[in-house]
Amino acid sequence: MYARVSTFEGVADHIDEEVRVAREEFIPAAQKSGGFEGMYVLVDHESGRSVTVTFWSSREAMQASEEKANHDREEAAHDAGGAVAKVERYEVVLSPPGPVSGVTDTVGDTVGGVTGTVGGATDSVRGVTDNLLGGGEEKQR
Fold this sequence. Notes:
This protein is of the alpha+beta class. It has two domains: about 1-105, Alpha-Beta Plaits; about 105-140. It contains four helices and four strands. It has helices at about 15-35, 60-65, 65-80, 105-135, and strands at about 1-10, 35-45, 50-55, 85-90. Strands 2-3-1-4 form a four-stranded antiparallel beta sheet. A hairpin with a 6-residue loop joins strand 2 and strand 3. The longest helix has 27 residues, at about 105-135.
């Protein structure tokens, strides 16, 4: 898997619009290009800075999307009153299990699933902590 990381310097007031455009325009266009695996959009609401990470099944798929990505990136930056600070390309050598494409689904569903899992992990960890703090004796709840 490969990733293209684009960093934008923008205007804080335009962040929500940038996210909307990514969701409604960039993701559907990337999905049509072939080899698209998913996308993360990271934002700093205070500074207006954002980072977009797109994932591709192969180096060839990422390269095939370059021309359109260059155009879309510059247009998005211009429309938001900002600029493209840099674009970097990486090979992904370690990632969490499961498809990255789930990130492009509705945010509520994806985050809800993760929150549920984390909540369960916290309960398990709490039990381990109780055992450690209690000198090996399990506390009753």
